[in-house]
Task: structure prediction
Amino acid sequence: MLSTIENTRLHPIATAPANSLEAQVGNTPLIRLRNTAVAHHIPDTVAIYAKAEWFNPSGSVKDRAALNIIRTAEANGQLQPGMTLLDSTSGNMGIAYAMLGAARGYHVKLTLPSNASPERITILKAYGAELILTDPLEGSDGAIVVARELAAADPSLYYANQYNNSANWQAHTKSTAPEIWQQTQGQITHFVAGLGTSGTFTGTTRRLKQFNPNIQAIAMQPDSPFHGLEGLKHMPSALKPGIYDEDVADEQVTVRTEEAHAMAHFLARNEGLFVGISAAASVVASLNVAKTLDEGVVVTILPDNGFKYLSDKLWR
Result:
């Protein structure tokens, strides 16, 4: 079991001056969920840790993928000064694009469901992103379809295409996985993450398996097509991302929206962690894994905090 957690800063995803915005992406803290474990009767020989991804500059794990997508496109000549970056988003990736686009001089055009939280829409507008709101009943899949149509109609746009862009998952092989390995001193036994684009789970798992093939990787998704876990996909009923590889996971688990809501309240009031709904769902899944173990180190990802969800009825 870990006696201490090392938070030594690793190299950022892409080389950048130490005082630049880009250099602040990654190297997020790893927090042990002690109170959660105790309250759910998890033995001391099993530790649950979570990566606090809201420490990234735009407030979510998506900064990692957005930065790597942009830097890769620049290196390949696909994204050049004066161009517009286009993509679909449910919120967080769009905010990451908008932040980095503002810093690097790109116009950002985004399609997103019109029922995205008011906080996310306001943040996107603050960064100057152009928003095209899509049918809320079609969710993130509807936004994808519209983005594809826009890209086909205007080849001058750079279509980042996060769901099918290998730079998405590669961001996590470069940063997230090495950070987890170092922060747990190589003692991680189980990795749990939710599936949206699947980039975080796929990239982190692939690299962790290179460090130690015995690490168990558990993919989490909503339990039904109609759910309230914003940012996550119910893969059997959704447009499957091109980067999604179901063979990467050792186990697939589901979480009900109600369970995630209850955990969000629990974490705020018992761990002092005010997290987003998908983050709470990841903790539910991690806790369920921990309950099956006699010893081990379970690590999960908390994609963002709860500040973008304040208008949600969950907190009223």
Observations:
- Residues 229 and 278 are 6 Å apart (CA to CA).
- DSSP finds nine helices and ten strands in the chain.
- The two ends are 39 Å apart (CA to CA).
